[in-house]
Amino acid sequence: MTRTRTAGGPYVREARADRLPSEGWPFTIPAVRALADGDVLDLDHPVTLLCGDNGSGKSTLVEAIAAAAGLNVEGGSRNFQFSTRTTEVPLAEHLRLVRHPGRRPRDGFFLRAESYFNVASEIERLDQEPDTPPLLPTYGGVSPHERSHGESFLDLVTHRFGTDGLYVLDEPEAALSVTGCMALLAQVMELSEGGSQFIIATHSPILLAIPGAVIHQLDEHGFERLEYDDTLPVVTMRAFLADPARFVHRLRAD
Ligand SMILES: Nc1ncnc2c1ncn2[C@@H]1O[C@H](COP(=O)(O)OP(=O)(O)O)[C@@H](O)[C@H]1O
Ligand SMILES: [Mg+2]
User: Fold this and answer.
1) To which H or E segment does residue 124 belong?
2) What is the C-alpha to C-alpha distance for residues 32 and 242, in angstroms, rounded to an integer?
3) What percent of the chain has pLDDT over 90?
4) Average pLDDT, stretch 94-105?
5) Is 146 within a domain?
6) Mutational pocket test of ligand 1: of 60, 85, 169, 217, the residue with most ligand atoms within 8 Å of the beta carbon
7) For position 96, which CATH number holds?
8) pLDDT tens readout for residues 104-119
9) For the AAA+ ATPase domain, which residue ranges apply (predicted)?
10) Which of 35, 107, 112, 218 has fewest C-beta within 10 Å?
11) How far apart are the first and last CA of the chain?
12) Are 87 and 74 in contact (CB under 8 A)?
């Protein structure tokens, strides 16, 4: 199959860190320490995926990347600057995104599973304001508050996202069924082939299978690039599905 790209490639090539403090959260997380030691997080691909166990630092990294890219760290686009809590992103100040000169995304969105509710409220609030074009049609026409969490996620990606954007997603599978994950995979493929860049933290063996995506796995040593078959979610899920009863029995024995 020949893939045609209408645009020139990713916007952000890599993330590096400058002068990181050595103490305190989040600077003690191994993946962040790796950046402090000079490791570079390679993002120079239409789709970069970050996986790793709970607590390995995926959200910390994607949040800092989103903040360094100028996206609202509570979720949303550049235009959404609402804040419901004091959002501090200490890592963002030290994170340096190396961009491709001359390439700027026209759109951007940071999707955090846990705060999409607030994004939905912000859409409704902005649509109450007079003299501004309605936002809701670009989100599929139905308020995310009136859709299931998973449905509104897919609305967002299908109707609001485009082919000239930088999209940072943190565990987008949280609200999605297996077929929902497959629909998201197809949409990410289409938009990234059209020129958008995606950086996604995920545990989903389905999303990890996005063709051509580069996977970095975070662990107690830092982060490393792995092939699909060697990643923790895929290895563990395969072992589980091969014989669920035995797996559960072993878990209980442990
Ligand atoms: N605001 C915070 N203050 C202190 N520690 C935090 C904070 N947020 C997350 N952590 C800790 O940082 C580590 C990495 O968290 P996180 O990036 O959310 O991991 P992941 O997304 O990979 O599950 C965890 O040990 C977590 O408990
Ligand atoms: Mg997380």
Assistant:
1) helix 116-128
2) 35
3) 65
4) 93
5) no
6) 60
7) 3.40.50
8) 999 999 988 766 666 6
9) 44-232
10) 107
11) 47
12) yes
Tokens for 33, please give them.
């320490």
As for how many domains the chain has, the answer is 1
Domain that holds residue 220: 12-116+162-253
| Residue 145 is assigned to a structural domain of this protein | no
Residue 155 falls inside a structural domain: no
Q: Which atom of ligand 1 is nearest to the CA of 57?
A: 17
Pocket test for ligand 1, best of 59, 85, 169, 232 (most atoms within 8 A of CB): 59
**133 assigned to some structural domain:** no
- Nearest of 171, 158, 166, 133 to residue 51 by alpha carbon: 171
Residue nearest to atom 27 of ligand 1 (CA): 55
Nearest ligand, CA 219: 1
Q: C-alpha distances in angstroms, 188 versus 54, 157, 205, 223?
A: 24, 8, 15, 23
Tokens of 13: 């090539």
| Dihedral sign, Cα of residue 147, residue 153, residue 158, residue 162 | positive
- For residue 99, pLDDT over 80 is answered with yes
Beta bridge mates, 12: 99
Residues with CB under 6 A from ligand 1: 25-26, 29, 52, 54-60
- b/e map 185-201, b = 16+ CB within 10 Å: bebbbebbbbbbbbbbb
Ligand having the closest approach to the CA of 55 = 1
Q: What is the mean pLDDT of the chain?
A: 88
